[in-house]
Write a structure and sequence with these properties.
The complex is a heterodimer of chains A (148) and B (126). Chain A is an all-alpha fold and 148 residues long. Chain A contains 7 helices and no strands. Chain B has 126 residues and is mainly alpha-helical. Classes of the chains: A mainly alpha (148), B mainly alpha (126).
Chain lengths: 148, 126
């Protein structure tokens, strides 16, 4: 795992969280659109709201980071990174907006962080036969302890 | 009665988003390391190669169905039930599916992580 790859994983967390938050804020600003098939035009016009636009851009960036991470890491390695967003939101709420976080939520934060830590400390990709045949094993696939 | 609908939606979300994740992961493994490809051949080559992978489109479709199931689920059930239930079950389902279909080496470390994260997600929503 290189530094750049960790940046991509961070991009997944940050962009997904920012995208969701921006979308939620924009949709709240628009008020109660009845989200139904009868109201498609209102739903389509929602894109014009700057918060919604920004949210969609962030979600696109998230998707780009997500699939690029999947191109070099296992699904079971990448997925826990997506859950760090919950932790990020809670921490921003606590230290940015001084909201109170209940003990159960702190426990949730601890569990997620522990899960992510467990995975991150292990190998990022299952070595495939193709790897072994052509280019030799990628370094961190076989020997996670080589990692700096 | 409404609970049955909510759980049906949750089941559908878990099934489709797991399918989507597995298909996307499979496609991207076919494409190969995007960073290296970008360096060698440029961004357009990456985009072309991704879009020409047939399972990628299938994966996107599954993701879209998952998204709409979530919308329907939210109209049938509570936000505080549907979102954490589907998110945490998806983590566990993904670990199983990645092992079976992608032949990923899901060792004790990753099982534990999937369960911890799934539990954590539920607690965060309580």
């Amino acid at each position: 795992m290189t530094f750049r790859k960790y940046l991509v994983l961070a991009g997944i967390t940050v962009c997904a969280t920012a995208g969701d938050s921006l979308l939620a804020r924009g949709m709240k600003q628009l008020g109660n659109i009845n989200v139904s098939l009868h109201n498609l035009s209102a739903l389509l016009l929602a894109i014009l709201n700057p918060w919604v636009t920004a949210g969609i851009l962030f979600l696109l960036a998230f998707f780009a980071c997500y699939i690029s991470a999947l191109s070099w890491a296992d699904l079971t390695y990448v997925l826990p990174a997506t859950s760090l967003g919950y932790v990020l939101v809670a921490l921003i709420a606590r230290f940015g907006f001084h909201e109170v976080i209940s003990p159960t939520r702190w426990l949730g934060i601890a569990l997620i962080a522990a899960g992510v830590g467990f995975v991150a400390a292990g190998p990022s990709v299952t070595p495939s036969r193709q790897h072994l045949d052509s280019r030799g094993p990628s370094r961190d696939a076989l020997s996670p302890q080589v990692k700096l | 009665m409404k609970d049955i609908y909510a759980w049906a939606a949750i089941g559908l979300i878990v099934l489709t988003s797991t399918t989507g994740d597995v298909l996307l992961s499979y496609s991207m493994k076919q494409v190969g390391d995007v960073g290296e490809l970008w360096k060698r051949r440029g961004a357009l080559a990456v985009l072309g190669r991704v879009l020409r992978t047939p399972t990628f489109a299938l994966g996107l479709m599954a993701m879209a169905i998952a998204f709409y199931s979530l919308l329907f689920g939210l109209s049938w059930g509570n936000l505080s039930l549907v979102v954490p239930a589907s998110a945490s079950l998806t983590f566990v389902a993904n670990a199983v599916a990645a092992r079976i279909f992608l032949h990923e080496r899901v060792g004790r470390r990753r099982w534990l992580a999937a369960l911890l994260v799934a539990g954590g997600v539920v607690l965060m929503a309580v």
